[in-house]
Amino acid sequence: MEDTSLGKILIVDDNEDLLFAAKMLLKKYAKEVTIEKDPRRIPFLVNNHNYDVILLDMNFTEDTTSGKEGFHWLRQIKEIDPKAVVILITAFGDVEMAVQALKEGATDFILKPWQNEKLLATLSAACKLKESYDQVDNISQKSRQLQADMKKPFSEIIGQSSSMKNIFSIIDKVAQTDANILILGENGTGKELIARAIHDRSLRKDEIFVGVDMGAITESLFESELFGHKRGAFTDAKEDRAGRFEVADKGTLFLDEIGNLSMPLQSKLLTVLQKREVTRIGTNKSIPVDIRLISATNMKVHDMVMDNTFRQDLLYRVNTVEIFLPPLRERQDDIPLLANHFLKIYSKKYRKDFSGFKPAAIQLLQHYAWPGNIRELQHAIERAIIMAEGNELDSRDFFFLSSKPTTEKVSNNGTLNLDEVERNVIQKAIDKNGGNISKAAKELGLTRASLYRRLEKYGL
Predict the structure, then answer these.
(1) pTM higher than 0.90
(2) What domains appear along the chain, each with residue ranges and CATH number?
(3) For 113, what's the count of Cα atoms within 13 Å in the CB-facing half-sphere?
(4) CB–CB of 245/253 below 8 Å?
(5) Residue 27: φ, ψ to 5°
(6) What is the pLDDT of residue 156?
């Protein structure tokens, strides 16, 4: 038993010679050995100390043969600590008593006088069992915490505005289906965060989430990146490589900035989505893929369909359900929440003690237009924390925003011309609905035909 720690051990026996002999043997292997001859002290000891193993005599002076006292104290220990590891010891071993001891919750049963090697082996096994109990308990606690966190609706997405609550509702409805999702919204609004939230609540949550920035893939690398290639298929193909579709098999594939694809690439993507199989470059073998598709774009794909720059059949394929993420300027109620979230992150990162924002700072942040949306707000908070002094951020800490447009300037150009007002309202409705003409028309109280006439009139 070299280099083996038996942890903390409690031995309870009315035989003092046995106690001292056991302590002399075990102190070389155990972290701590406590001996006790009076069993009435067991509740106090177990309540106030953590033992890896308890060695408990079955028979004390009042009753030397039946084992009743041992069972009584075993029950007391288990009542205090159900996960306690208890080894019962007795000079009168019989099978029935051993079986009863195990049924009562004992971990093992050992006869005295014992062989030292047998005792050490039994204690070693018991300590490993205790360690496994502790690990399971730790994992269980973590699991409970994760479950509790999951019950907090969309804890990773910050927002309490009505538009965000509507998005949360949509995610709840679609997450556990395999419906293809199209997320629309300006750059920096958090489209990938929404995609990950859908994945994390889906039936595929234990599988991989693969994100692809379609805007960053050149036409020449499109097929290789998405569908894979065989070694030697082209000059730089030095090894076989699985494409993103294969990697995402059984999981979720997120195609960001799908609106940037050229018409030929849209056609290739559509073919794969229809057949649900890919063929690596340099091979003729089709590989079936099982993915849940989520796409996103900051472009007005519905207008692009009308302009013949985006395939209508591809749009039908990718947007079984459509989610529009409003720009930050339309989520003023969420700005203080987001700002405080980033304040905590960057205060910790830069080891600064900021308690919050002064009212003037929040007012400035809420009235600024945020063309870069949440991403710009995040960078603004980080910059302010680096440069600011004191423990509260003030409006002057955001001086770099003061010369930029505010929401008042964006929403009100000072004109009372009815045509100009109508043009602005229509533009806002289209932006809000991600270019969806039907939704914009419904919100404006117009028919699609009426809205199209106004779009033509105003050159929108």
Answers:
(1) no
(2) 6-135 (3.40.50.2300), 162-324 (3.40.50.300), 328-402 (1.10.8.60), 418-458 (1.10.10)
(3) 5
(4) yes
(5) -65, -20
(6) 66
